[in-house]
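Dear Dr. K.,

Following up on our conversation at the group meeting, I've run the structure prediction for BTB domain-containing protein from Pristionchus fissidentatus. I'm pasting the input sequence below exactly as I used it, so you can double-check it against your construct before we proceed with anything downstream. Let me know if the numbering doesn't match what you have in your notebook.
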Amino acid sequence: QMPSLPDVVIRMEIDKISRLHEEENGRSSDVVYAKNLPWRLLVEAPESVDDSSDEDDGYDEKVLGVELKCDTNCETSWSCDASIEIVILNKNAAGNRVEKLHEEFGIGNRSGGWNFGWASLTDPEKGFIEDDTVVVECRVWIEKTTGIRKLRLIDYTRPIDDVTNVVLVVEGKKLHVSKDYLALHSPFFSAMFYGGFRDAEKEQIELKVVEYDEFVDLLNVIFPTSIEITDESVAHILKLADRFQIESVLDRAESYLIDSFLKDKVEKLVFADQYRLDLLMEHALDLYSNVPELKALKPTSEYKRFSDKTKSAICDRILEM
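The predicted structure tokens came back this morning:
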């Protein structure tokens, strides 16, 4: 029996749901951490299937997929037993659609979900849709985990004896970091701390035109924490890694984008072009399967901003087909 309070609650308001089919990768929630695991909810674009798990509606060739993802990058043996409720909220609470399932997450199974009949969800008389918006909630009770390491976090707001030796000030907030560790990863910080500039002697150095939360995300990738790059953080991590010349972080972000199925082909091309990520460029172009798809890029605003090198790579890909 489920305890009264779930370990994870994720709520998504899916607006403009009638146009969800235009979004190749659906919609994803932010990542929520519980029991040292990263959880997110994915609402997939409606699709036609041969069957539907939505028994209340009977057969419905078009379904809305709601999937709970456990996106840990742990590659060793691990498991997590969880009870899950996926709820489609109704204007009348008594009419909520509640589907209960049990999942054994692990290295070979990182997701679990349910298909809901599209016709009933989008029928105004059923009470699930209002102003072209459907609200989904997912509640997770984590029953047992094995092989999960404790989440490693660093509190940058406090100094660490014999480790931190400089304070970076971002948006008026102090971050205690190690000069040597940052200099090892970044020529920018190496020059700042050891290049003979005036900042080298300061105990506090202000970084301008940087958002605090975004910079903390960058630090969490540089320093040995368990915080992972996500679809929400990858854009600003790339921006800051490029600004501060941190090649190791650019490489990690590139690998993340290659593996990500939530970023569409055009987004991947834009990132690859902007940050000169050759492996991502090759991967993104390989996602285009025919000439018309590639030619459709030309009138877009993204194409107009592409470098000559990227435009040439697109032409080469067309010639290969």
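Two things stood out to me. Residues 264-320 form one domain. The two ends are 56 Å apart (CA to CA).

Best regards,
J.T.
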